[in-house]
Design a protein that fits this description.
The protein has about 160 residues and is of the alpha+beta class. The chain has 6 helices and 7 strands, in the order E-H-H-H-H-E-E-E-H-E-H-E-E.
């Protein structure tokens, strides 16, 4: 049974393996992280842990029983009870409801553990899978997302008001 865990230093090798194994798959629907992401992975990973430590972001990984990463689920820019949600799941589990179940779990954690009241997420117009995940998790469209919000693609912002 996959388990959602808060990101820590020890997850780095599994996160890198996940990103490398799924790079082409992700690039088909979201902007590619670029070679610099992989070349500077350790520094970027440590910067993410520092952001998590200072409370501006919270990062989670969905781990398989063998410790491999099946997905990343993140809360960015935590401020005034609001955060942005971002996520990606491995190609091997895509289309099986894993993202929907885990986004719902993260929404519960966002309210209960992180004191958030509102989550926002942007997805490109051509990312139908992500649009379905957000809708199934209760998010509603609230307006256009600019290409600057989505790595050069246009799309839609979605929002979910969390129950206290």
């Amino acid at each position: 049974m996959p388990e959602l865990k808060r990101l820590h230093t020890g997850h780095a090798p599994a996160v890198l393996a996940f990103e490398l194994a799924n790079r082409a798959y992700f690039a088909a629907s979201i902007s590619d992280r670029g070679d610099d992401f992989f070349d500077q992975f350790t520094d970027r990973y440590n910067a993410s842990l520092a952001e998590q430590e200072d409370g501006s972001c919270v990062f989670y990984v969905l781990l398989a029983e063998d410790g491999s990463v099946l997905g990343r689920f993140n809360l960015y820019d935590l401020e005034d009870g609001t955060a942005r949600l971002g996520y990606r799941v491995a190609q091997q589990v895509a289309g099986r409801g894993v993202a929907t179940v885990t986004v719902r779990e993260l929404c519960q954690l966002a309210a209960a553990r992180h004191g958030l009241r509102t989550l926002r997420a942007a997805t490109s117009h051509d990312n139908a899978a992500s649009q379905k995940v957000l809708a199934k998790a209760g998010f509603v469209p609230v307006g256009p997302a600019a290409p600057a919000d989505l790595g050069g693609r246009s799309g839609t912002w979605y929002q979910l008001d969390l129950q206290p």
